[in-house]
Amino acid sequence: MTQMQRKRISRRRFLNVSALGLASAAHVSKTFPAPALLERRPPNLLFIHTDQQFDGAIAAHGCPYLKTPQMDRLAARGISFRLSYSANPVCCPARAAWFTGRPPSENAVVVNDRRPIVASMPDLGQWFGAHGYEPVYAGKWHITGRTVAKSFKLITPGTGIGEHSDGGVARAAQQFLHRYRGDKPFFLSVGFLQPHDICYWLFAHTAPLAELPFPELAGQLPPLWDNWAFDPREPETVQRAWRSSAAWKQISQWPQWQWRYYRWSYYRHVEMVDAQIGLVLDALDDSGLAENTVVVFSADHGDGMGAHQLWQKMYFYEEAARVPMILAWPGHISENIQDTHHLVSGLDIAPTLCDFAGIEPPPLCRGRSLRPIAEEKPVAWREFLVSEVSITGRMIRTPEWKFITYRGDPTEQLFDMRRDPGELRNLAPDGRHADVIADLRRRLADWESHLQPAPGALSRDA
Fold first, then answer.
1. Hey, what's the torsion of the CAs at 144, 145, 148, 150, to 10 degrees?
2. What is the pLDDT along the chain (462 residues), one digit of tens a residue?
3. DSSP summary character for residue 368
């Protein structure tokens, strides 16, 4: 054993004792609970989330154009659900869905920064706090109409620039884990902002560039997406919001290398937050808490990154709608697994965390616990999931199909996700898949018939 290894073990022993709030090792022998009592204590819960990260923007998920050793480390410790979708690929709605287990049409947060969450609807901070947990929050919250400090013990807020604030968020979580002395299990939610700063990169580079600002990067730029092209038979709602926008008039004139530069830049923003995630995982390991802490990692939505010549979010193409979902708990769930079969939603966060905690989820949660899948137990799973955008947009996804419709819009989209994973051919206008569309409409209508929409959440003035 090297001197470095001895120091590391010694440090971890100190941190283990310190975290319990005990004066000395002798005191430990007198007061430390028996193993049987320890086993009955519910696990701690650590929810790490990023902003605007596509599921494919992780090296362990097959992307060769970036390095994410910390996310890779987490993926190696657990199970990655590769068919994981945002409940609504927009910041506030996606986050409200996480923390209530209810879709935006029910919790009222259907758009950013306008409608407050239903006041009577509990969030996970309130719920876990009422069920024996210490709810703690660090970083970005962004749920309209509810102050995070009223639901969690806030140790540090986030700001509008992830490059500036994510380090502080990571260090706050790090110190919490190192110093935790509570006699209750904790639910720690850590909200990072990156790679959301790519929005500001785009604001600065909307106009076509005459030349690559840093010529030495020319050989490092990723290629164009295979689905850089797009089927122009898009819903009029998408056309108005994107293809007819002032930004599109400039961005559509980009030279191809500028699209590649955008994608290169996006990956650098992901790498920034990866480093901060590493600080939190290191602290979890060093604190001695890792063996009794369930870690969940996800993102609120993705980013277009130039696929379909689009950027940002608020639509249902894969790059904006599909997000990471990783579960890890050493010694308890499967490790280094990439699940490509089960359809997973952001609505599943609440029931999954509650299941691991051994408590009932909040009332009327619409998601399902991922725990049985992670523990490789047989479980009948959903045949489809639904995602929302704004007031009118709906996506229904089955293993084979993705159907997209906007209320009042005559153009719909149908993609064969097995033969056309890049979503390059809209089959809806062809007329040859009318039976498929009818079945998907029926499933969507059945799903929505069981919801309890918030007052005004489905009106255009919401």
1. -170
2. 444 444 343 333 323 323 323 222 222 222 323 333 345 689 999 999 999 999 999 999 999 999 999 999 999 999 999 999 999 999 999 999 999 999 999 999 998 777 899 999 999 999 999 999 999 999 999 998 899 999 999 999 988 899 999 999 999 999 999 999 889 999 999 999 999 999 999 999 999 999 999 999 999 999 999 999 999 999 999 999 999 999 999 999 999 999 999 999 999 999 999 999 999 999 999 999 999 999 999 999 999 999 999 999 999 999 999 999 999 999 999 899 999 999 999 999 999 999 999 999 999 999 999 999 999 999 999 999 999 999 899 999 999 999 999 999 999 999 999 999 999 999 999 989 999 999 999 999 999 999 999 987 776 544
3. -
- Decide: 323 and 301 in contact? Cβ < 8 Å: yes
Alpha helices (H) in 299-381, listed in sequence order: 318-321, 349-357, 371-374
Q: Are 404 and 395 in contact (CB under 8 A)?
A: yes
Residue type, 418: R
Q: Where are the alpha helices (DSSP H) in 44-189?
A: 69-77, 91-100, 104-107, 124-129, 162-179
Domains of the chain: 41-381 (3.40.720.10)
pTM: 0.90
* Antiparallel, parallel or unpaired: β 44-50 and 293-299: parallel
Please name the amino acid found at residue 116. P
* H-run or E-run covering 387: strand 385-389
> In residues, how long is the chain?
462
Q: Each residue of 270-301: b (16+ CB within 10 Å) or e?
A: bbbbbebbbbbbbbbbbbbbbebbbbbbbbbb
Q: Are 418 and 134 in contact (CB under 8 A)?
A: no
Work out the end-to-end distance of the chain between its first and last CA atoms, rounded to an integer number of angstroms: 64
Q: 134-139 and 393-397 as β-strands: parallel, antiparallel, unpaired?
A: unpaired
Cα distances from 318 to residues 82, 110, 219, 354, in angstroms, run 11, 20, 27, 28
Which distant-in-sequence residues (6+ apart) come within 8 Å of 208 by Cβ? 250, 253, 254, 255, 258
